[in-house]
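Query structure, 220 tokens:
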């Protein structure tokens, strides 16, 4: 039988919170959605969210750059601690002033090194998160700053097919395989099951919908 830390002791350490943007889930037209997303990011930073991933992959590069800059400006007005990562090209992330990048699971093997080279040329050490979907992927991603392991419960992304969750046992194995790199649980994470992820070794949780409501605040 696998061992987990008692749920009652989970909150003795900080739970990392990683918000992922999706303006398509916000009301209104494109202009209203972008404005709402910028304001939402400001509130996340004010409330103590540790990481914000700008995940607006359908935007053309110039529009993505402009939106990321707006988000960064709003976040920096509230916090110097919240890190902003762009799910996109490292060149765009650097130009926007992001703290680093997020690499999807299908990224090329050399994507992390390439991103670091781009940032280091500017004298900056980037934060790089990477998505992993198996323990084998986790073991090859231990040079990342942090790992997003998914889907733990269920993955339902805008415009994408739902995937069955791998469960807490798989998350626990991933956390052990990634050590000492922190692993964040992603996929169907809610206010109620977040604590179970921490009890099974996750350093925090990552989500889209969780951060669209006020539920995440109880986790801080």
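Result returned for the query:
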């Amino acid at each position: 039988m696998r061992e987990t830390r008692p749920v009652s002791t989970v909150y003795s350490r900080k739970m990392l919170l990683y918000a992922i943007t999706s303006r398509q889930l916000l009301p209104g037209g494109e202009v209203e959605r972008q404005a709402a997303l910028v304001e939402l990011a400001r509130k996340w930073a004010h409330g103590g969210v540790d990481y914000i991933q700008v995940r607006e992959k359908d935007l053309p590069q110039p529009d993505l750059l402009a939106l990321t800059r707006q988000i960064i400006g709003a976040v920096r007005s509230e916090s110097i601690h919240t890190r902003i990562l762009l799910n996109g090209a490292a060149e765009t992330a650097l130009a926007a002033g992001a703290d680093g990048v997020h690499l999807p699971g299908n990224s090329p093997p050399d994507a992390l090194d390439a991103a670091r080279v781009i940032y280091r040329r500017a004298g900056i050490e980037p934060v790089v998160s990477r998505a992993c979907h198996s323990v084998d992927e986790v073991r090859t991603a231990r040079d990342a700053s942090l790992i997003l392991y998914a889907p733990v419960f269920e993955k339902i992304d805008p415009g994408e097919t739902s995937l069955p969750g791998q469960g807490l046992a798989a998350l626990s194995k991933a956390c052990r395989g990634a050590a000492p790199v922190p692993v964040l649980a992603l996929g169907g994470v809610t206010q109620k099951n977040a604590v179970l992820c921490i009890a099974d070794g996750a350093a925090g949780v990552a989500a889209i919908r969780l951060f669209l409501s006020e539920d995440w605040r109880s986790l801080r």
